[in-house]
């Protein structure tokens, strides 16, 4: 039996709600075993989710030790983890850079960028050893274009795009592929962290005139995370309703 014939396990960070939950739901529907990582499972409900994860682990991705411990526990349950979706992220405060709180800058970078380094550094050795893996990092169109007031978020997401290109090259001959997605705005709890004016400004930039749907993001991730995606690595897949044409 080849790696692609067996039931694969997908680990999704920030999977308790929003895009992460939508991605997990789709991968579960596609027959994957699901492990969810999050710092807050308060609203997570199996009936509402529509699938039963084999493991829900309370993990802060910015904590390298916690990531290593939780990953070891997850491997002990599943044996292998073929798919890693690095989705956990925060916006942080909206403020011009000259007033941007220094601790908030650090917090956004720690979660949105270093968090991905932490999980990749931990998960990649077993993927390399198995000769197979699919890593999908959730960036943002903000990482390509920047948004005023959102410098920490945009810098972190730009970093995710560049980081993914680097690890893809490191892994190119290993059977492990690493790609990014760069969605524009989706209606999730994340929008509670930004103002209505900010949301309206972003919507006005989208030629299709609407936000991306969670299911659209999940469908793209499902393909990138599949064995059908076999010759694309280090790439950033846009979900921007026509906004990004580069
Ligand atoms: N909603 C949007 O408009 C867009 C979101 N994104 C990205 O998509 C990803 C998911 O965002 P949403 O679902 O919209 O947000 P959300 O706020 O609905 O969900 C994010 C999840 O990440 C978890 N999380 C936060 N910090 C964490 C940490 N340190 N460790 C583990 N889990 C943590 C939260 O508890 C939450 O469950 C983020 O990386 C975000 O930057 C990208 C483009 C657009
Ligand atoms: C909700 C987050 C902060 C956000 C805001 C705006 C854009 C965009 O310019 O499309 C994003 O992609 C985001 O992730």
UniProtKB/TrEMBL annotation:
Taxonomic lineage: Bacteria, Pseudomonadati, Pseudomonadota, Gammaproteobacteria, Pseudomonadales
Keyword Hydrolase among record annotations: no
Pfam family of the protein (one): adh_short_C2
Bilayer-crossing regions: none
Family: Belongs to the short-chain dehydrogenases/reductases (SDR) family.
Gene3D superfamilies on file: NAD(P)-binding Rossmann-like Domain (3.40.50.720)
PANTHER family for this protein: 3-OXOACYL-(ACYL-CARRIER-PROTEIN) REDUCTASE, 3-OXOACYL-[ACYL-CARRIER-PROTEIN] REDUCTASE FABG
Matches recorded under PROSITE patterns: ADH_SHORT
InterPro entries hit by this protein: NAD(P)-bd_dom_sf, Sc_DH/Rdtase_CS, SDR, SDR_fam
Entry keywords, A to Z: Oxidoreductase
EC number from the UniProt entry: 1.1.1.-
GO MF terms, alphabetically ordered: oxidoreductase activity
Name the record gives this protein: SDR family NAD(P)-dependent oxidoreductase
């Amino acid at each position: 039996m080849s790696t692609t014939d067996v039931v694969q396990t997908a680990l999704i960070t920030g999977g308790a709600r929003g895009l992460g939950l939508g991605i997990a739901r789709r991968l579960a529907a596609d027959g994957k075993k699901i492990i969810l990582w999050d710092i807050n499972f308060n609203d997570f409900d199996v009936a509402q989710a529509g699938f039963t994860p084999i493991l829900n682990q309370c993990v802060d991705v910015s904590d390298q030790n916690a990531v290593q411990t939780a990953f070891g526990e997850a491997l002990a349950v599943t044996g292998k983890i073929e798919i890693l979706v690095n989705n956990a992220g925060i916006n942080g405060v909206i403020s011009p850079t000259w007033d941007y709180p220094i601790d908030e800058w650090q917090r956004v970078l720690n979660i949105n960028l270093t968090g991905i380094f932490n999980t990749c550094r931990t998960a990649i050795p077993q993927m390399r050893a198995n000769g197979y893996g699919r890593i999908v990092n959730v960036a943002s169109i903000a990482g390509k274009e920047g948004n005023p007031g959102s410098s920490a978020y945009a810098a972190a997401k730009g970093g995710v795009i560049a980081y993914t290109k680097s690890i893809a090259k490191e892994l190119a001959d290993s059977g492990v592929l690493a790609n990014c997605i760069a969605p524009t705005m989706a209606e999730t709890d994340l929008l509670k962290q930004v103002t209505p004016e900010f949301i309206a400004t972003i919507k006005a930039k989208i030629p299709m005139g609407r936000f991306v749907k969670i299911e659209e993001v999940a469908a793209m991730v499902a393909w990138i995370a599949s064995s059908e995606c076999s010759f694309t690595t280090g790439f950033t897949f846009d979900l921007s309703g026509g906004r990004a044409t580069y």
